[in-house]
Amino acid sequence: MGPDKITGVSTTAISLAKSRCRVLIGEGLLQQIGNEIRRYVSRRTCGVISDSNVAPLFADSVTESLTSAGFGTTLIAIPGGEKSKTLRQAGTICDRMIAAGLDRQSFLVGVGGGVIGDISGFVAAIYHRGIPHIQLPTTLLAMVDSSIGGKTGVNTRDGKNLIGAIHHPLLVIDDLNALKTLPVREFNQGFAEIVKHAVIADAKMFRMLQSWQATEAVALQQLIRRNIQIKSKIVAKDEQDQTGERALLNFGHTVGHAIERAGSYRKFLHGEALSLGIIAACAVSIKRAGLPQEQRDAVVDLLHRFELPTRLPPSFPRPKILDALKFDKKFEGGKIRFVVTPSIGAANVTTSVTMADIREAVDEL
Ligand SMILES: NC(=O)c1ccc[n+]([C@@H]2O[C@H](COP(=O)([O-])OP(=O)(O)OC[C@H]3O[C@@H](n4cnc5c(N)ncnc54)[C@H](O)[C@@H]3O)[C@@H](O)[C@H]2O)c1
Ligand SMILES: [Zn+2]
Asked: Whose Cα sits closest to atom 7 in ligand 1?
């Protein structure tokens, strides 16, 4: 199910009403980025933030295109990977931007996966009290999930995303060609979030995924578009993450995050841990929300289709998963707010789930 066979598609645009964010999805967009951005931004200077894996692949095209469209451009590349998503690294980026003469009339472009999206968005939120942010996601996960919704931030010693801001990008540009260099494992982990979206909100997309072939760009383009719509619709109902609607997006994440943490963030990629978390959430949903067993089995089959893990390896430190659950933000105040699905395509938050239910679900993995 590799990303290398994508061919032929024309650009599609989505406007996300509430956040005023515009998303373009197409091929070869990174090479035309300057002119595209010129249509939306009247500013003259920008910083381009990327990482050490992505910059050698795409930074030249992006900066050349920006420069030829008349933008003064400063490229800042940081080391690739989650370890770069820190307050210290955000500070270093700010210092370099100041040294390059970028000011409150500048804007910031993030070129990379979710790590770059989150840290560049955070810097854009705080630099001169906020400058416009443009995201050029280069992973499937970033296209269907992290670039949408306006959450930006960095990790601290004690946990992920503990410091951040809501700062919606002005523009998101998804170039399908960028996915061609993405390792297959990274590509597949994006499908965990896609399956999550299908389970919580879109039974039709779930059925479509059951016979999915990643050979046509147009199919991938439509799939990304559909996922952006699902996420942005949920986010629009709960922009500041306060009414609980946005919590539906956490489906599978309670146990998923705990598995990531128990594996010291090395054993599983986020989407892989999420795959297991989705299966645990389905087990809880059978017990507490009446999810039919055969629908749970269909979810497991679908995750397996995208080469995502559906069982914990025997050597995995299972007790650590339950220890890690207490770090979860959803456990604040001692009450468990757990997202369940009564049937594929629907989800709700419940407080009826007990720690024993979760332990049982983890034991089954
Ligand atoms: N803000 C949100 O709402 C939100 C939602 C979900 C996840 N996130 C965050 O996103 C991050 C995970 O995102 P990710 O999975 O994209 O991780 P990532 O940004 O670390 O990218 C994964 C790896 O792939 C490399 N890479 C990226 N694009 C590539 C390409 N086109 N070709 C080759 N290599 C490429 C990167 O250098 C990195 O090594 C986490 O920090 C997570 O907290 C944020
Ligand atoms: Zn996730």
From this structure: 146
Give the C-alpha separation, 342 to 124, whole Å.
40
Nearest of 73, 225, 241 to residue 153 by alpha carbon: 241
**Tell me: the pLDDT tens digits for 137-151?**
999 999 999 999 999
Q: Is the dihedral of CA 111, 117, 122, 128 positive or negative?
A: positive
Which residue type does 354 have? T
* 30-45 pLDDT tens trace: 999 999 899 889 999 9
Which residue's CA is minimally distant from atom 11 of ligand 1?
Answer: 114
More confident: 126 or 41: 126
- Mutational pocket test of ligand 1: of 53, 119, 143, 248, the residue with most ligand atoms within 8 Å of the beta carbon: 53
Q: Compute, in angstroms, the gap from residue 334 CA to the centroid of ligand 2.
A: 23
Within 10 A of 13 (CB to CB), how many other CB atoms are there?
10
Indicate which ligand has the atom closest to the C-alpha of 269: 1
Pair type for strands 133-137 and 107-112: parallel
Q: Which of 50, 118, 230 to mutate to test the pocket of ligand 1 (most atoms within 8 A of CB)?
A: 118
Query: DSSP secondary-structure letter at 26?
Result: E
Reported as a single tens digit per residue, the pLDDT across 183-196 is 999 999 999 999 99
**All residues at 6 or more sequence positions from 301 whose CB lies less than 8 Å from its CB, including other chains:** 210
Residue 265 — pLDDT band, cuts 50, 70, 90?
confident
